[in-house]
Amino acid sequence: MGRYPPPAGASPYPGLECSGTILALGPNVPSRWAVGDKVCALLSGGGYADKVVAPAGQLLPIPEGVSLTHAAGLPEVACTVWSTVFMTSHLSPGESFLIHGGSSGIGTFAIQIAKHLGIKVFVTAGSEEKLAACKALGADVCINYRTEDFVERIKQETNGKGVDVILDNIGGSYLQRNLNSLGVDGRLFIIGFQGGIAAEVNLQAVLARRLTIQAAGLRNRSLANKAEIVSEVEKNVWPAVAAGKVKPVIYKTFPLCEAAEAHRLMEASTHIGKILLLP
Fold it and tell me: What is known about its subunit structure (predicted)?
């Protein structure tokens, strides 16, 4: 829809992650990579294609036990969740974590990696089917945002303390309620603005409970920053994937020529997990 313009120099076409086989190497590519390797990659755009060019620092090996096809659904969600929630907000074992949109691609990944690391997981979603899927992935508390006030439910479940970290893709319309849901030293990380970019908030809670509000995307980061994130994901997340503790959740696949149909499915918001395009 043109609401997410690509960074300067990036492909104008959609697609921020992919998987495939290396066909050729540039002159400065590290020796760990070879023609014929099966890999997945974080992209700045252009993934809706038969072939892509990707910086070597944004390549990942296909995790053991994951198909080449399903691996396409890992790089962007893994890099988003690890860079925001763990590298920046320092979510730690024993803490609590609220994920808005728990049944999304990012949400289904975040539930699994957080549970693997010993974190109590709260999620919101908009249907009982989606909440059941989140529960099956390990979420501890599942809240239907259409029928429940998530702030009140979180207070009930935490004896009034609130959660430690929130991953939010809604933005403006949820800002005050997110602040009200955080405990002392709580951290809010915003990665989307489905609920708008503007809000009026009462900052008293931020001061009283020493709250942190942060926001970041992945696409506009420097090559060096992306390479650092990819390296951290390979080191910290890939072993959990290889061990079967974290799995890509794939709802449906479409041939690339049916990309419009795939978008219609995504816009209907009935899917759970990722939708993949196959060239």
Answer: Homodimer.
In 102-214, where does DSSP find H-type helix?
A: 105-116, 128-137, 150-157, 175-181, 204-208
Other beta carbons within 10 Å of 85: 24
With beta carbons less than 8 A apart as the criterion, state whether 45 and 13 touch. Answer: yes
- What's the count of helices (H) and strands (E) in the chain, helices before strands? 10, 11
Architecture of domain 89-215 in CATH?
A: 3-Layer(aba) Sandwich (3.40)
What is the value of pTM for the model shown? Answer: 0.95
- Domain boundaries defined on the chain: 17-76+219-248, 89-215
C-alpha to C-alpha distance for 63 and 106, rounded to whole angstroms: 18
Distance, in Å, from the CA atom of 57 to the CA atom of 41, rounded to the nearest integer, reads: 9
131: tokens are 């909440």
Distance, CA of 122 to CA of 174 (rounded, Å) = 16
pLDDT digits (tens, 9 = 90+) for 72-116: 999 999 999 999 999 999 999 999 999 999 999 999 999 999 999
DSSP E strand boundaries for the chain: 17-21, 38-42, 59-61, 96-100, 120-125, 141-144, 163-168, 182-190, 212-215, 250-255, 274-278
d(CA 79, CA 69): 18
Mean pLDDT to the nearest integer, 38-48 = 96
Class of domain 17-76+219-248: alpha beta
